[in-house]
Amino acid sequence: MPQLTLRNVIKSYGRNRAVDDLSLEVREGELLTLLGPSGCGKTTTLRAVSGFVGLDSGHIYIGQREVTDIPPERRGIGLVFQNYALWPHMTVFQNLAFGLQLKKLPAGGIRDKVQRGLSMVQLEGFEHRYPRQLSGGQQQRVALARALVLEPDILLLDEPLSNLDALLREQMRFEIAQIHKQAGITSIYVTHDQTEAMVISDRIALLDKGKVVQIGKPEELYSSPANRFVAGFMGTTSFVQGKVEQSRGETIWVRTPAGLSLRGRGRNLRDGQEVAVAVRPEHVRFLEAPVEGAVGAAPPPEEANVFPARVVRASYVGELIDYQLDLRGSSLRARGEVARAVAEGKQIRIRLDPDNLPVLPA
Amino acid sequence: MSLKRILILSAELVLLVLVFLLIVGPMMSLLLWSVAIRWYWPATLPQEVGLDYWRQALGLEKSLAIGAVSIVPAFLLSLSIAVTVVAITMLLAIPAGYALAKYRIPFGPAILFLFLMPNAFPQQPIFVNLLGLFTRLRLAGTVPGVMLTHILVGLVFGVWITSATFRAIPSHLEEAARSVGASRARAFFRITLPLAAPGLLSSAVFVFITSLDEFTGTFFIGLPFVNTLPMTLYSSSGYNMQFASVIAIILLVPSILFMTLIQRMLRAEYVGGMG
Questions:
Q1: For residues A67-97, b (16+ Cβ closer than 10 Å) or e, as one string?
Q2: What ipTM score was computed for the predicted complex, to two decimals?
C-alpha cells in the first residue's frame, strides 16, 4: 500500500482560503482522520485528494506518483460519501460490479470479487436488492464495499456515518475500524465528531482555518493538546484563565485572578504570560466533604491543587453524574459516581491532577 | 354514519361530478359532434348519427361538403414535423440543460430566462417579425421554416425541464462513478442519463405536443404552403362543426398516448430510490 503525500496545498474560494498551505503525509496502511469544525477545510482537502477540486498550488502524490493533475477516475482512489451515493437504478450487485466491469474483468472474476466485498461488510444475500430497499446502515456498507472491491490505493471516507442514527453510528465506527484493519488500505477519514475520530483513527490531523493545527495519535491530541483550540475540540474541557506565576522545566504554576495557584504542565511559556489551564472532567477528583469554615482557606502546601468548590449543577446522566462546579469564578465540569452523589449548592473540596493539567497560551 | 360524514361525502361527490363535467364534458361534446350527421335545435342529442365525417376525414370517402378534406396528409406532415422538432430540440436541450444545471455558467439564470422569451410576449408580433427575417432567408412557407419556429417555441420546455431534471440528480452519483474509474462521458451515460430518463421523456412529450398543436407561428411562417393539422382544423372549423370535431379528437390522441407513457415511466422502479 502506498502512502499519500500532500505538499503545500492551497485552495481558495473567492477570497476565502479553504485550504491554506497544507502539507500532510498519510503513512502506508494508516487511517488518518481529518478532524475539525465545519469550514475548517477538511472536506475540501478530501475532494482535492479525490480530484474533484483542483488546486491553486501544491502537489499531491500517491506513493511516488504525482496525481495533482490526474482526473479522479485515474487516481486509483475509493470514495465513500456521507449520503452513500449508491446508484438508485442499479441493484447492490450492479453497484459493486460497475467499477469492475470498467476494468474489463471477466464475469466470473467480477462475481467472486462482489461476493467477497459483500461478505466483508456482512451483506451476503443482498445482491439483488435495490438501494432504496436497504436501511441507511446497509446502504453505507454497500458504499464501503463498492469502494473496497476495486482494491484502491487510497480510500477516502467523507463523514460516512453522519447520516446514521446515534446507536448505529457507534456500532459502525468499530465496524469500519475493523474493516480498515482487514483491508489495510491507506485511508483518509473526514469527520467533525471527535469521539468518532478517537475510536477509528491511527492518527488524527486537527484542522482549523485550512491549516493543520496538530497531528498525532488520538491520545497525544487528547492529553497533550498543542493549543487551546485543540484542547477545546478534543473532549469536554473547562478552561481556567490566569497568568504564569513561575515555571520549573515543564511544571508551571498559574495564578488565577481570584488568587488560586494551580500547578500544571506546559512548554515555552514566559513568567507573567496570560494562559489557560485545560481541565478535563476526569481529572477533577472529589475529596472528602470539607469541614465548615475551611471554605476559602488556602490549601496546605504539601497538597498541591486542592481547592474548595461549590456544586452549581448536578445532572444525572445514567452511569454517572455530570457536575458543573464553581471554582472561585471559574466554571469547571466534573464527573462523579452515582453512589456518592453531591447535592447542588454543596461546598466541596476538589483536587486537580497536576500531571494532567495542560497549561496553554490563552 | 354521522351527519358530518354524510355531508363531507356528498360534498366530495358534487366536486367529483363538477370536475368530471369540466374536464370530460367538452370532450364528450366533441365526440357527439364528430358522429352527428343531423343535429338541429332544440334536440338534446343528434337526430342522426354515423361515421360519415370520420370516413371523409380519413380520406376513405370523397365529399363535396365545404371544409371537408382528407386530413391524412396534414396529419402525416404534423407528425413528421413534430418528431423532427423533438429530436432537434432534445439534442440542443439535453446538453444545455445539463450545463445549466451542473456548471456555474455566467448569466445562467438569464440564459434560462431567454428561452422563455418567445412565450413571454404576445406571439403575433414576434412571428410577424420572424416572418420578415424568414422571408429574407427564404425559409418562409417551407417545412424547415416551420420546424425552426416550433423549436423556438418548444425550447423553453426542453431546456427548463431538462435542467430541472439534471439539477434534481445529486452530483455525487456521478462523482461516485468517476471514483470507480468511469470517465466523465461514461458517468453521464451510465448514471445520470438513465436517472434523468423520465424527466427527459416528459420534456420531449411537452415539445412534441407543443409542435403538434402549434398554431400562431405556423400560421405566419407556414401558410399557405405548409398545412399542418391545426391549420386544417382552423380552416374547416368555421364551416363544419363535425369535421372540426374529428380533427380535434385526432389531435388529442397523441397527447393522451404520451401522457399514459409518461405515467408508466414515472412509476418505473428506480425513480423512488433517489438519494
A1: bbeeebbebbbbbbbbbbbbbbbbbbbebbb
A2: 0.82
